[in-house]
Amino acid sequence: MRQFEVEFKFKADNIDFKVFDSWALSLEPKMILYTSSEDEYYAVPYADFVRLRYDRHTYELTIKKKTAEKNNIIRFEGNIDVTNNTREDIDIFLEGIEAKKLFSIIKKCSIFYFPDAILALYDVYDESFNHKGRFLEVEAEREIVTSQEHALEIIQKYEKLFKEKFNIDYHNRIKKSLFDL
Question: pTM of the prediction?
Fold first, then answer.
């Protein structure tokens, strides 16, 4: 299951970062990351998209492809750390795979890592720094997932916690990726 991403994404404009951070800390995560990054999205002929994510320290290329046309919960995902490459080399690679840049977004994130899942609350801005929304995400931890059913059990467990704390449930799920929004 390492090549698959299994996640729920929710519209979360009414969740305050401080409240979320305090709540997530109370669940005793194994690691916490507060960060911001820029995501460049590229069209490619053989997948839904390729994304180049970078911040002050790292660069990562990601390819994503839906496993079913109307399913954005379970997707094929491959990630490659390209931090040790120059931006020129990354651009040459993207040109070589016929990737066409479509747009960029900027994300401000609070990310909490648990043994079974990753929780993230993040704001999204467009290239002109216009706020596009706040989102809450839960992704099953790929290293421990044994099946799609197992992954769904994990993320549904956290969805119940979101309902209890933030009154967010399956009605608030977003069926599209940030690329599609």
Answer: 0.88
